[in-house]
Amino acid sequence: FGYGFGFLLIISAAAVGVSLPFFIGSLFLHKIRGWLEKYPKKAAFLRAAGEGNRFHQFKAVALIRLSPFPYMLYNYCAVATHVEYGPYILGSLIGMVPEIFVSIYTGTLIQTLADASQERHGLSAVQILLNVGGFLITLVTTVVFTVYAKRQLRILQTEEELV
């Protein structure tokens, strides 16, 4: 679908995909809170996401989305940490943007390679360099975002433990 339409399609689906578990999680609020209390160290940064003002909640949710924390688990736990829906949905969508671009880029790269192999004319040296360079930039950017998010989440967790 390309970058523009593909991005709009994925971000729309992501909005629905993170909203439904948020609202479904409210039905199981008691059980989720019990799990969070059972594993206080693991849930410390999740609880930190629900603390503070809306900007703090937005920032924490975006960092959780950038980190390698499992999306599915957080989608249900967010409601139990008192994160408001506005910061949750905005932070989720902003935090998912890098992953969406990686997915779109990977799909485009695979399509380019498939087209080149079917047409049996190959890729020019410039196309190969651009594809390899783009892939490496994508990979490095993903690692940088992940490392940054993990560090910031540790800071949030430390602040939560001090309080």
From TrEMBL:
What keywords is this UniProt entry annotated with? Membrane, Transmembrane, Transmembrane helix
Q: Which domain of life does the UniProt lineage start with?
A: Eukaryota
Q: Does the UniProt entry include the keyword Transmembrane?
A: yes
Q: Which residues form the VTT domain?
A: 1-108
Q: Does the keyword Manganese apply?
A: no
Pfam families in the cross-refs: VTT_dom (PF09335)
Q: Where are the transmembrane segments?
A: 6-29, 88-108, 128-149
Record-linked PANTHER family: EXPRESSED PROTEIN, SNARE ASSOCIATED GOLGI PROTEIN FAMILY
Protein name according to UniProt: VTT domain-containing protein
> Which organism does this record belong to?
Hibiscus sabdariffa
